[in-house]
Design a protein that fits this description.
It is built from three helices and six strands. It is of the alpha/beta class.
Length: 126
């Protein structure tokens, strides 16, 4: 399976999903004019990735500055796919990188994952 690399823009995340290393990185901002157009190919790629046999640990790194409500719905869809995989394998880990220890974005993200059984870690960056 090929890497999924999407160069960040002013209004869309940078995506670097590397199936060979099982490392998935999401960076930047997300407030695309058409969230479905931006996110559906990403959701499809992740769904296809997990349709194969993935046994090694999988890490998702979030290094984001901002996302809007429509983006959060798709982020949740993507996380649901990781959650389904994690129920079978218990090998998914999420890392949330931030410069702030108590920011609104972090709280929004925590509310996204509260119903999903996904191990996660907050990484404070100075």
């Amino acid at each position: 399976m090929q890497k999924l690399i999407i160069t960040p823009t002013k209004s869309t995340f940078g995506i670097n999903f590397d199936p060979a290393k099982n490392v998935f990185e999401i960076t930047g901002n997300s407030f695309p004019p058409n969230a479905m157009e931006f996110y559906e190919p990403i959701v499809d790629w992740v769904r296809n990735y997990f349709s194969g046999e993935v046994k090694d640990p999988v890490t998702i790194n979030f290094k984001v500055n901002y996302y809007n409500t429509s983006s959060s719905k798709y982020i949740f869809k993507i996380l649901e796919l990781f959650h389904e995989h994690n129920l079978k394998t218990r090998n998914v880990k999420i890392k949330w990188y931030s410069h702030e220890t108590e920011d609104e974005l972090y709280e929004d993200w925590r509310s996204l994952i509260q119903d999903l059984d996904l191990p996660h870690e907050f990484v404070y960056q100075e």
